[in-house]
Write a structure and sequence with these properties.
Chain lengths: ~800, ~475
Amino acid sequence: MSLPHDYAHTHVTGESEFIDDRPMMKNELHCDVFFSSRAHALIKRVDFTEALKMPGVVQIFTGHDFAHNLWGAIFRDQPILATDKVNYAGEGIAIIVAETREAAQRAKYKIIIEYTDLEAVMTIDEAKKTQSFIIPARKIERGDVDHIMKEAPHKLQGKIVIQGADHFYLESQASIAYPLEDGQIEIHSSSQHPTETQHVVAHALGLPDKDVVCVVKRMGGGFGGKESQAAPFAAMAALAATKLKRPVRICLTKDDDMIMTGKRNPFENEYKVGFDQEGRILSLDVSLFSDAGAYADLSTSIMERAMLHSDNAYFIPHMRVTGQVCRTNHHSHTAFRGFGGPKGVATIEKVIEEIAHFLKKDPIEVRKINLYSDEGNRNLTHYGQIVKNNVLHKLITELETSADYKKRRLEIETFNQSGEDTIRGISLTPVKFGISFTTRFLNQGNALVIVHNDGTLQISTGATEMGQGVNARISEMVTSEFGLPRDAARVMPTRTDKNANTSPTAASSGTDINGAAALLASRKIKKRLSELALKLLEIPKEKWASKTAGLGTQAEVELDDPHLNENDPNKAADWASGCATYFDIQFKEGWVFHPDHLDKKIEFKYLVLEAYLNRISLSDYAFYKIPGIEFNKMTGQGDAFLYFTMGTACTEVSLDKCTGEVKVLRTDILMDLGRPVNEDLDIWQVSGAYIQGLGWVTTENLFYNDQGLLLSHAPSTYKIPSIQDTPREFNIRLLVNDENYANVRGTKAVGEPPLLLAISAWTAINDALKQLPHYKGAFPEVRIPATSENVLRAIMPERFTAWE
Amino acid sequence: MRNRVVFYLNGVRKEAGPREASMMLAEYLRYDQCLTGTKIVCAEGDCGACSVLRLFPHAEGTDAGNYVPVNSCITLVAQLDGSSLVTVDALKNKNELHETQKAMVQCHGSQCGFCTPGFVVALTGMVEEKLSRNESTIDVQEAKNCMTGNLCRCTGYQPIINAALSIDLKNCESVKERYYSEKQDAELTKIFSESLMMESDEFTFFAPKTLNEAIDYLKLYPDTKIIGSGTDLGVVHNKRKATLTNLLSLHLITSLYGIEQKGNEITLGARVTHTEFRHFMKDKLPEFSSYLDIFASPQIKNIGTIIGNIANASPIGDTPPVFLALQASVITTGPQGKREIPIEKFFLAYRKTALQHGELITHIKFNLPEKNTTLRFYKYSNRKDLDISAVNVAIRVNWKDENKKEIKEIIFAAGGVAATPFRFLKTEELLKKNLDIEAAVKEMHKEISPISDLRASSAYRHVLLENYIRKFFAEVV
């Protein structure tokens, strides 16, 4: 049985501290954001007079109060607070600082504002028409797409509309800024990216980075929503704190958070595909269009990942994918678990479904025939990376059997003929998800490992804990290196004064990067301790420093080789245990020994004390960079990823013919996660990601007014899956794969990939629908999310037409 | 007359004056008592992160003597007068986690930890209920049902379900035994016998012992809001759409608790919760009871009153169509005395009722359906559980005889299709004359022009209604 999450025992008692759980300081103030209700408008007049008169209100700040009012994750294009013009409904305009949260919130309603509305771009179509784009379109191309398309025996073309989704992290955006002596500031933030939060705050206030520290203890969920978006809110609190010289807390209400912050990018993708009689894709031309919202945020990177995942698990010999990021007047969309991946994958999976429908084949056969394979040179992606360690075929065939796919498909077809109140569908989809940031320089991290005098450890890395268990995994890796139980180590809050220039905890790479760095730092200490242990073998115990150091009678133990310079966490490590060994010294169950001198074993904590007394460093810092990332963004070619995480899911759904309601009857998942550090943590990441993806493809509906102001901005109106929406039967298994030599300890990243497995629920909905008589020819057109209303429209389109 | 709210918090007697009493319980716990285990996420009772256990010894019915989970984010401290509360912070006993907590740890039921306290409270509430009934097992459906009011975004719920199923009830310590002493019971009984009046510049709260006092008070202060369970007012307050300043609470009036049955006639008081009513109706009108399964969350049902759902007069309220179908009467009392208003005359316009100034609802009364009656209730919401209706439908047909060929009487009511809970009088007439479904469907569409909003488009509401009525006749004829 795997160890639980490292703070599970305080989560269940409520002791685990989140931002707003920090004790309120006597002079602390609260901050709330006044935002735009218009999509695109000039601010004609803002009048704070009445708001300032409200009881408890201390001050109101605007964008003019910042030293620099622009920020951005990639392009610095977004005002922290809009000054002359608003570009989306929900854009911050002013912050109200008050003695209580309620006072700030109530004062907000007293602000008078007048706008002059401007022409707004509200849809991808409108953006295309007005050429409203963030950057010029990008293209990745291989082969002779047009010619092969022309010659292909069969051709289809179509479109898929994919809506966004709210992250719905339970803890809304939150920061507290503490002004310190000499103009310094300390920010406690619910942020996936403390370094960027630090940098944005420093830049906004005109401070050098050295005067700003960002601390992240944990987040109540992140999912990408706190990768870039935590920073501007931290900057708002920091502004007020510096101006008023009092701590300032900003904790958004769920409503304001949902209205203001960006979502998963909506996409509208078009495709043309040429294929043969067996369903083999010969040529594919995909045009991806995303809605970035008003500013760039991470949307161009998200698009890149969508383009790199438009093949999903399939070898497509001739392929062109273009990506166009549209600028609209919506909140600025951002990272969300899977990044662009789900949008690329959903598109190609719809293509597969359509091909199968056209050829009257079982989609699983079309999937299998198109899979990447080492045979016949079908293992090169459209961006020129070889798919190594490919288990796709194995995953699909194994799951097909264990989920009883064939038998259930036949049963479903019979069931659907029986005229029940429901119809059913089943679908099995794979995922191949590239692991690494596609931007090379982000693939770096650092870690600090401290061994204290009593033999307990503190570990600090750039990774941030948002529930995914990155800290549990890192501490398990580090303590096992020292032969200690996990609770011998504590992973400390992430702080930019300990770990600087870090990357966001994102792209599923938290453990890959920070775990490797922590392991490398541990090995530096371990190597020194090993050499010391070896030398102590030669010294009689009574002459050890612990007996003599105070007297100064003995010479110090000098290490001959105290340094270790290594960037590969798997080098010098025993593949079976994952641990490195130096000077043949073993670290096991709290003891350190040489296998030839078992009589002379020493307890870890005494060895540590000896090291201290011999002036041997017990702390170390390591830097790690992921090797081999060579992706040229200009040509769209190269090794974009260190490796791929692969998996497959089979989902069976039932659709209510009366209401369109979707029920997931059964889900089977099989994933290759390499060799997990903590198997249970991985499995429940899979479960959580799948259900989150299920919400995205079914019930989660973002409903805006004509100004783009989000109206479904609370759980009463925005419906994430509830406990009753879990599959009636839910089986998750991992494939044994001991051969991922690319990543630390043979593990594989798990955070994002299983979210894409929920696409199987959407294709299963399509599968059910296409068995209806009116879809004999055409393929059903159901957007993501397939809400009940969308599903019922597909079930009985004619009954709706009367009321449109 | 008391001027302080009295309740017990984690075994300790607390008094609250106007300042604390006017706070939402979650805020009071977090910012006044430094008990930050209880979290606030949505502040509208829709996610369960703020769940706390409440024992209210003065109500009648099945759960009156148990700690049950309620949402602390939308409950004023004032409303907890006479209650005993236990929060997540107090479940650990010395260094030992409660069995529900252990299960959540061992089964990986917690990831980010923000929703976790709420889940632990919901689970513990179920354990309390099980212990009180001497039950020894927990099944999957019970596990899911007890946590329907809790949202988690990390785990996908499966490990939480596993945690619930792993709990061995034999090892569970009873929270009630630990925290609810006889002394406490005696004290709460004592304070319950006295009216409560508290006043400050910002907050006035009156809780009389008798209806007459309530009516007299309303005469004097007509702007006073009557607060039932506050599950709606609490949300309005949190979203800063109104301020709760002058409140009248009926929680000390004993006659408003309890459900009475005389022959076929059932009368329930203003303080009867959904949970209590659901239990009561289980064998009397199972259709109603199971309809309430998909009403709100356990936390809301544990405190929200049936009559609140009527008084609220929302066009998408779940029970108004049902009471229309049951031809219930709303019993009110006021300066002019007692009135009995047939429910079809009660809803006048959008959120406007037949209640006159100074009047309040004391009871609702209806008859259980007689022989040869078919009753069906349907609810569509964007998520099956813990969601507000987009459309809900109640149909009751009294057949001329057992052959179910001719309709003697029919009531066809729906929510979500008009500004009020709506009765399709013309369609009913048509069906009474002739059981012609096609003609009825046509007429039904003509009677309404529903709005499009975030829950459903107008077209979808039309189609849903049509599908439901077709389904009804397909099923029953």
